[in-house]
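Researcher: Next sequence.
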Amino acid sequence: MRVLVTGGAGYIGSHTVKELLKEGIEVIILDNFSSGKRELVLGGEVIETDLNDKDSLRKAFHNKNIEAVFHFASLIQVRESYLNPQKYYLHNLTNCLNLLEVMLENEVKNFIFSSSAAVYGIPNQIPIPESHPLNPSSPYGWTKLFIERILNDYHRAYGLNFIALRYFNAAGADPEGELGEMHDPETHLIPSLLLYLLGEREKFELFGTDFSTPDGTAIRDYIHVSDLARAHVLSLKKILDSSWSGSINLGTNRGYSVLEIIKIVEKKTGKKALFEKCPRREGDVPVLLASKDLAERVLGWKPEWSDIEFIVETAWNWHKKRSLRLSQP
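Model: Next structure:
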């Protein structure tokens, strides 16, 4: 079979492409390379285009016999979404609608969407079940929720099968060392800290020390990117084997505070991490843990790589290797 992966040269997209290729599935990567990296493309056909260009999208689908689409291409920075919400609503919503329009024109009815636990906002129970009220705390989170509602309507009206995967804090790197995190700018905690320890950042900023948590820093659920990639492949199999559609959390039911992560990073790297305390960022919530119960029941998914020390170890190995490569003439 053949699938199309938007944002397939990005962090989670590239790891998912690797899993799809291992399953013997033909992959077409669609990426504009505004943030995706060519070195993260390990195989498959690559089409360089933008989702805002419907004519190019139509050409990408023409005579390809695509059976399913994985949609990773979106803007992801919570703080930037506060500062420039128009950019996020135009990019994330309009581009997804363009993609869905062309899919329906080509009778492609299977869709795996990269959503986020940000759809929940400030949780009133931990871990968060899928039945939790949906009230995002950022424009970024609202774009994810709006798309989920669109998908539900398209499922009812047009027979579009979909699974929206809600996850928070993808982390780590490919255990085989072929892929890793390469955001620019990098805003995620673990890679930001590792880049600082490698001397690629002048300082490390800790945002928020006054949260209602045991040590005052935010608690998050960290999931190894390879586990996330596997969940996307399992979602494809679920859609093809049944009529099930809906939203599913991907989590570990276990959270770590920023200070706990710093200690683990110091342990794995043997380096001392000095940090600058900064005010909390707009939209940050104290605790965000996504329940994995539905994912286990519906997809048969269980995280295999998400031990926090293994997450840090694989990320450290990736960033050390990349830093060494960049330092060579």
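Model: The radius of gyration is 19 Å. The longest strand covers residues 161-167.
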